[in-house]
Every structure is written in C-alpha cells, then in structure tokens.
Amino acid sequence: QVQLVESGGGLVQAGGSLRLSCAASGSTLTMGWFRQAPGKEREFVASISRNGGYTSYTDSVKVRFTISRDNAKNTVYLQMNSLKPEDTAVYYCAVGSTTYARNPTEYAYWGQGTQVTVSS
C-alpha cells in the first residue's frame, strides 16, 4: 500500500505558474498526474517512468507542463506554466503499473487531489 499526498494547488491568474508536488510513502514505479474538472471524466495529464527517462504528456499541456521526480525524496512534481482557465481542475497523482500507462485503470494508488483554479 502506497500513500500519496499532493500539495501546491491554488488560485492563479491566466498565464501564471504553479508547481504541484506529490509525496509518496515509499518507492514507486511509474508516476502520473491526472485531472478532473466538474462534470468531466478524469483525464491523463503526464507521467514519468521510475528512473525519469521516459515522460509522456497529453497534447493540451505539452510545452507548458513539465513532470519530474526526485526518487531520494519519493516525490514527483508537475511544473505548470502559462496556465489557462481550461486547466482548472482537481489534480491527482497516482502510481502506475507500467512505464507507458495513461489510462486511470492502470494506476493502483491515488492521492486525495489538489485544486487548481485559473482565473481569466
């Protein structure tokens, strides 16, 4: 059982930046970030392999968001730049079972989520 705790969410104006953190209770394999806006399904945002050598992003956040990890701290980060109102959602981190996992069903453990609100 791995416990995940996200932090770093908040309210920011369009064009601004936030950095989300996700601290895990132990070592993990692939880590991913997902988001869910009101009335919408949870969607994949980004993922990173255990050694950081492979990263994946959904098209809408490429160039603007960067996922990274510090295995010594069991922590994964999501740097979000040039934020847009459509990025508003609850952001979740999760532990994935395979390197290329992008489907929520491929992630076994989830954090409680952190709210990101981008005002126009």
Task: Give an overview of the whole structure.
- This protein has 120 residues and is mainly beta.
- The chain has no helices and 11 strands.
- Strands 2, 4, 5, 6, 9, 10 and 11 form a 7-stranded mixed beta sheet that branches. The protein has a 4-stranded antiparallel beta sheet with strand order 1-3-8-7, with no helix packed on it.
List the helices and strands and how they pair.
Blueprint: E1 4-7, E2 10-13, E3 18-24, E4 30-36, E5 43-48, E6 55-57, E7 65-70, E8 75-80, E9 89-96, E10 107-110, E11 114-119
Short description:
By secondary structure, the protein is mainly beta. It has no helices and 11 strands. β7 and β8 (75-80) form a beta hairpin.
**What's the story with the biggest beta sheet?**
7 strands, mixed
Element order, helices and strands?
EEEEEEEEEEE
Name the helicity range: under 10%
Shape: globular
Low-confidence stretches: none
Proportion of residues in β-strands: over 45%
Q: What is the average per-residue confidence, as pLDDT, rounded to a whole number?
A: 96
Alpha-carbon distance between the two ends? 40 Å
By DSSP, the count of extended strands is 11
SS content category: mainly beta
How large, in whole angstroms, is the Cα Rg?
13 Å
Helix count? Answer: 0
